[in-house]
Amino acid sequence: MGSGERKPFENPAIEWVDSRLPIFTLINKEYGVFPTPKNFNYFWNFGAIATVMLVLMILTGITLAMHYTPHADYAFESVERIMRDVNFGWLIRYMHANGASFFFIAVYIHIFRGLYYGSYKQPRELLWILGVVILLLMMATAFMGYVLPWGQMSFWGATVITNLFSAIPLVGDDIVTLLWGGFSVDNPTLNRFFALHYLLPFVLVGVVGLHVWALHVTGSNNPLGIDTKGPQDTLPFHPYYTMKDTFGILVFLIIYVAFTFFMPNSLGHPDNYIPADPLVTPAHIVPEWYFLPFYAILRAITFDVGIPFTDIVFVEAKLGGVLAMFGAIALLVALPFLDKHPARSARFRPWFKIAVLVLVLDFFILMVCGGKPAEGLWVPLAQVATLYYYAFFLVLIPLFNKFEPRLDLPPSIHEAVLSCCSKKKQCCSHPTEAA
Amino acid sequence: MKYFLLLLSVFVITHGAPALAAGDAEPPPEMHWSFSGPFGTYDRAALQRGFQVYKQVCAACHSMDLKSYRNLAALGYNEDEIKAIAAEYTVEDGPNDEGEMFERPARPSDRFKNPYPNDAAAKYANNGAMPPDLSLITKARHNGANYVHGILTGYEEAPADTELMSGQYYNRYMAGHVIAMAPPLSDGVVGYEDGTDGTVEQYAKDVTQFLVWAAEPEMEERKRTGIKVILFLLVFTGIMYAVKRKIWADAH
């Protein structure tokens, strides 16, 4: 950053700073003239939207922390104090609680976009993996944040999820004791969760920085999944994408705000308005909606894995569930190395396109299963859905590598955009026919 | 955008489903409440009547630890009325200069007086069942307002095949139909001063509204603010869309 030529700024104050610390040059290079493919669709808004949500979560979160008491005896009441007696406390808390949901909505759509258009592929593997790290950090942060109000779902959710680690052989029980800071979920658990819930978002900011850095090395992917070939394929980030992102962010905020003001508790669980009681277990312990698909995978493993017709068990059901759940995320890390197909975008991959859309449906099915009691038909349904999730990565993707045809790629973004504009209504839905 | 809205609607539908999983009981009837919808407000007269029902009936067993007498200003009571309401109760305070605890009339800044000195006493007085605190009851139950109204009006003779122990009652809308609370309301049990009919149905509606207010005292301000925020965002988004169109006009 310090080396290389630097164009002087006309404004003397800016020039004075920039010649000593070229921060304005950096901003101009990365967000001003940064060459960006000209054919983005609105799916490309969600990175910016997620960033806005992260900032919003940190700002509201810091404000809440000023009024919150992280103690098992006072936490619930301090949250209600925020809701009732702190000026606009209800607004800050509802923004934070619903903000978590909408942060996940933005990130899940962002991940879908990466999957569908092959943004994980060479040369963006590390960029994608950093994204998975962001997802994991978000999950840890959201889970610990949900514990803080110390309602019934906070307490019992924490009990169920921390107990999962006891399935790990040899060290499992020690890990659980460490997480709890004792021998059950109690005040020490709440204290360390609060400390970590405050810390992790800043780690998240750091990883987001790396994610953006990596993005600005490779440049953005685009709906065609082909590389940019020159200035005719790109537009400067500002004002084109700053403006398009602004519009997209505002549309997203309208929906978020509608939830925050008019149905602020619709994404939460009523049981969390009952103070935590270690002696009363809720009828159905369910995590927040954004964890339900993974919760369904966890509970789908209802059987021990071993040698059939003997008592030999390699992996008990509980450990199997934990492995399946974390494996579901680990598969995302492996994806760039599993998928060897030459085309990036699903537009030019007829089989992959169907498979990935079915994966989205599968994700919603798992979400519904995760919210239902683990009984009746919900169990086999969750098992089939889990099977498809795994098969997508471990069976279909390798098969596609070998057998899936690739439709003809357009020669360049520029030509694809031009040809579709000349064909008016058919715009971009089948750019291959034009090429 | 189309895709996004589609995804969102799928999400809302799929998310709505698990919410119904919790109870096995009959869903309570859907009532028309003045506070539902984006423009909903509380009916002050109903809130005052509801408070009267709470005070004379519910408060015999149920605490409302998160409410203070000063909060009653939102129901339309003036300062003197609130002082008078608070002064009907005696609370323990102290220690004084001599280190003694003493009793004094409650002040507006005091929390609603708990009918029991502690949870154990509450359980002991109620056959081992703890009467839940009512400060958040409508937020702590699925479909809270309709649920509370349903419970209050859902008492029936137990069917022949249901055996009730002493201290148990049959309620249509309770999960499992067995409830430890005796039917709290009966016609005429509270004398309304404004001439409103003293029926179980009316009491249930009024006290439910009062409990919704207790759980969400910020609701009116929240919705009012929300309307302004949405209107601002709609206009701002429209302008930004126009700017975006203009900037992009030469890009293709």
Model description:
The complex is a heterodimer of chains A (435) and B (252). Chain A has 435 residues and is mainly alpha-helical. Helix content of chain A is 63%, strand content 3%. Chain A folds into 2 domains: 16-285, Cytochrome Bc1 Complex, Chain C (Up-down Bundle), CATH 1.20.810; 295-404, no CATH class. Chain A has helices spanning 12-20, 23-32, 46-65, 75-84, 89-116, 125-147, 152-164, 172-180, 187-218, 237-262, 292-300, 317-338, 350-371, 378-403, 413-422, 431-434, and strands spanning 35-37, 234-236, 305-306, 313-315. Chain A is globular and about 65 Å long. Mean pLDDT of chain A is 94; it is low at 424-435. Chain B has a domain at 40-63 and 134-239: Cytochrome Bc1 Complex, Chain D, domain 2 (Orthogonal Bundle), CATH 1.10.760. In chain B, strand 1 (90-93) and strand 2 (102-105) form a beta hairpin. In chain B, helix 2 packs across helix 6. The model of chain B is unreliable at 10-23 (pLDDT under 50). Classes of the chains: A mainly alpha (435), B mainly alpha (252). The interface between A and B is large, with 50 and 47 residues.
Q: What characteristics describe this protein?
A:
heterodimer, A: 435 residues, mainly alpha, Cytochrome Bc1 Complex, Chain C, 2 domains, two-stranded antiparallel ribbon, 16 helices, globular, disordered C terminus, B: 252 residues, Cytochrome Bc1 Complex, Chain D, domain 2, two-stranded antiparallel sheet, 5% strand
